[in-house]
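Marked as duplicate of an earlier ticket. Keeping the data here for the record.
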Amino acid sequence: MAEALVIRLDAAADGRASWVAVDASGALLGAPIHGNLSEAGQAAANRLIVALVPAADVLRLRAEVPLKGGSKLLQALPFALEDQIAEDVEALHFAAGDRDQDGRLAVAAVRRDRLAAWRSELDAAGVAPQKMYSEADAVQAMPNTATVLIEGATAVFTEPDGTLSTIDTGGLPGLLELWLARSAAAADASPLHLVAYGDAAQLAALGKTWEDIRPRLASLDLRALADGALPRLAAQIVTSPGVNLLQGEFARRSSLLAFWPAWRLAALLLAGWFVLGVAWDWAELRRVRGEIAALDRSIDQAFRYVFPEAGPITDARAQLSSQLQRLGDGEARGGSELLDFLRSLSQAMGGTSGIRLEALSYRAGSLELRLRAPSVEALERVQQQITRGGGGLQAQIQSANPSEEGVLGRLQISRGGQ
């Protein structure tokens, strides 16, 4: 679906919620609305429904579990994490996400009765979300940059490596001190940046905290959210999803069997059409095979004529490919790949104002770029547009360092799977 409706449930669980519609790139399609949850269902038609639940109710962990995935992985998570959790793991629901560079699995844990209450609340309002995430998943991590979202009595802190922490706002100064001390003691310590989002009054109330840590940071960026946090959370969660809580026993299941009687005749007609199609395709396949055999004989004759010194012909196509590679065919493919990278970069920069290319380097199927952008968000938009632009390309931000002229970022573009 090209559009999504992001619904943020109130922590009070009183049937109230906030919601906003966004497109696939995270751009707002209207103003955020706060009201009864049942009203949100009216805006959900033909849209992907994503629910955000209070970050304080979801524990985020990382686990080293060798299993690849599926039901066995979900069954193993309580035993792998029971030493890290003070609560009874039998009362918790576990959901698995992606693995980090060290192979550790992202895990979300939530009380089973709490998750069931959210599901019941949504079902009663006629809203059936396909995805459900903790609000903390929508607070993005950036290389060398930590992010903190402050709302009311809760603060969500995301470290550069993606580690998430949800604490009371009163404990935020201590958490920041701990992060700075740990980062300074790291063997590969690098300049640190911090971006803080929140209500203008709350940001101002933490003025002493900002002044205390500013000397130890390469940059400190305080950003007041005039329209609240939902627009930013929604834009982030649709472009970089986190750990979907609707897994295992809480996964959304189709109820197609209930519609079988009404669709039985149509299904039988479709099956008959399928059988006729298979018979036709079989006859066509036999004809095409005859033509291919004749074409193979022609290829063998042509190959013998062009390369009489090639010796016995066992596979004309493979031998012809080998001859072409010796004549530089491999270099042509590399040039074509570079053109694909540059074309995608040009389209992404054209859709984002204020971006300037300062340097580029291409080697081993990877394009390294140095870009000057007006903000971190502009750099993120370029990365997102390249990744979603099709062609199997992937873009990753290697660094994003604020300066007097904007943000100096390093971006790497490669083909998926490389």
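See parent ticket for discussion. Residues 255-259, 328-332 have pLDDT under 50 and may be disordered.
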